[in-house]
Specification:
Strand 11 (167-179) and strand 12 (182-192) form a beta hairpin. The chain contains 2 helices and 13 strands; from the N terminus they run βαβββββαβββββββ. It is mainly beta.
């Protein structure tokens, strides 16, 4: 799947990578963990993410730089630790692959889930599913929580960003559009998650706006 991606929020400047992925085209595989962003910072350059290796490439596929076992490079990081371009490519690839494959990711081998107590928010009752991912899947955290509305669509997605010191996030999901009969959200907003499970109203950590979805 590919989509036009526009991003904002405080995270990118905090990590020293402001403007690199403000507007780009993201592509994710639906059958293996792989993603790319093009352009990556400048025209003619793109990223290539897999859990085992991340690279920044030219249009012809020649690598400008690469990093094997990229997750290990985040050891000791906190929320305000700057990222290198390759670390940005890893985070962005890992994040967008997870988002665009959820909830279908629940059917992958080794993924388990269980329903937990429902959650009340904005006058609605959302059912909650606690998800455990196997070590073979690179994502924000092993444990994640999905919030589902009465219409069966995701409303919120919680996780702790392990590569940023376990920072807790509350990720809100809005404005669905049908793409070949499958519902995808166009708008995502991520805020800090507080100890009681509620989301802080600020800062806006990441904003994600998606359009022009296409399967190919």
């Amino acid at each position: 799947m590919t989509a036009t991606l526009r991003q904002g929020g405080a995270l990118w400047q905090l990590k020293g990578q402001g403007g690199v992925l403000d507007e780009t085209r993201v592509t994710v595989s639906l059958i293996e963990e792989q993603a790319s962003h093009e352009p990556f910072g400048i025209a003619g350059r793109r990223s290539h993410f897999t859990p085992a290796r991340v690279a920044i490439e030219e249009e012809n596929g020649q690598e400008e730089s690469a990093l094997d076992e990229p997750r290990a490079s985040f050891v000791g990081h906190t929320l305000d630790t700057p990222w290198s371009p390759l670390q940005l490519a890893y985070f962005a690839g890992c994040a967008m692959w997870t988002y665009l494959n959820m909830p279908f990711l629940l059917a992958w081998p080794g993924v388990t889930s269980q329903e937990i107590a429902p959650w009340m928010e904005n006058g609605e009752t959302w059912r909650r599913l606690q998800v455990t991912l196997p070590s073979t899947i690179a994502s924000h955290s092993t444990m994640q929580t999905l919030y589902v509305g009465a219409d069966g669509l995701l409303r919120r997605h919680d996780y702790d960003v392990e590569i940023a010191g376990g920072t807790p996030g509350a990720h809100y999901i809005h404005d669905y559009v049908s793409v070949d009969g499958i519902m995808f959200p166009k708008r995502r907003r991520i805020y800090p998650r507080q100890p009681d499970g509620t989301a802080a109203s600020e800062p806006l950590v990441v904003s994600i706006d998606l359009s022009d979805f296409a399967f190919g």
